[in-house]
Amino acid sequence: MHLGSLFDCSPAVNFASRDAAGPNVQWGPRFIPDWQFFHVVSGEAVLQSGRSRCRISPGECVMLGPGSAHLLATTKETEYYSVHFAFRSDSPVPVHPAYLIREASSAQLAAEPERFRIAIPGAADLELPSRFSIVLAEPLFTRIVKEYAGAHAAYPFALRALIMELLTLVVRTALRSQAEEPAGRIGPALDAIRQQPGRKWTVRELAGLCGYHPGHFSVVFNREVGQNPKHYLIAERTRQAKQALLRGEAIEAIADALGYASIHYFSNNFKKETGLSPSEFRQRPHAANPADGDG
User: Fold this and answer.
1) Fold for domain 2-179?
2) What pTM did the predictor assign?
3) How far apart are CA 180 and CA 172, in angstroms?
4) What is the pLDDT of residues 256-265, one digit of tens each?
5) 185-292 architecture in CATH?
6) CA 257 to chain centre
7) Which of 16, 103, 271, 283 has its CA 20 to 30 Å from the CA of residue 176?
8) In the chain, which residues fall in CATH 1.10.10.60?
9) What residues contact residue 158 under an 8 Å CB cut-off, 6+ apart?
10) DSSP code, position 141
C-alpha cells in the first residue's frame, strides 16, 4: 500500500506509555486500527507476523501498521515504550485505539503482512521499515510519553510535533540504509558515538545497532571510516573536547561529559592525541587553525 507523500501527513498520537511486563505476556494475535511503535528498553520481546518471527532486543523498535495481523510477546521481564499514532488525522487530539483493536485468527496471523511505501519529496519512495534501532529515538519516546501523560494545555499539538520529529528520524535512517551510502551501513553506530561520546561503547553494542555480527561490523567499520571503533570513539571525544574548550567550558565538566574518570586521565589522553594539554590548547591562537573547530 502506498501512503502518499510524507509532506501530506498530519500525524496524531493516540496513546503513549512506558510500561513493564513480566515474561510470557502477549498482545494478540490482533489487528490494530492505527500504527504502533513498540520500543524495548530492557528485557526482550518477539514479534510474529506472517512467516516472520523476530526478536526485539533492548534499543530496538518495531513499527506495526493497520491491516496486518501480528502477535507481540515478552520472553522475560521487559520494559518498553508503546506509542500508537495515525499518519493522517484532521485533529491532533488523541483517539484511544483500544476499542477498535480486533482479534486475529491463526490463519490471519500466518498471512503475509502488508508492506507500506511512502513518497519522500526530493528522494526515492521508501518502504517503511518494520524494525529499526536509532539511538536518538529513546529521548523522543520519553518526551512523547511525558507530554501524553501530562495532558497540559495544547498537548495534542505538542504531540503532533514530536511524532513528526520521530517519523523524520525513522525516514532519514531508512533512506540512508536504502541508498547504502558508505557511512549508511554503519550510520547508527556513528550517530551513537557522536551523540553519546561519554558512554563506554563496546563493539558488540555498536554492531547490534547496525544489525551486524561484531566481527563483521569491525571489518565494515574499518573499511568505511579508516579506523577501528575504539580509535574513532577516541577521535570523536577529542573533537568534542576541542569544541568545548574553545567555548570556554570548564575542564572538569568536559572530562565528566566525555566519560573520563578524572581530569588527570582526560588531560593525559587529550595531550596524547593533540600534543597539547587542555589548558595549552585553550590558550593557543585558533584563528589560523580552523581544523580545530567543527571543520
Assistant:
1) Jelly Rolls (2.60.120)
2) 0.63
3) 12
4) 999 998 999 9
5) Orthogonal Bundle (1.10)
6) 21
7) 16
8) 185-292
9) 147
10) H
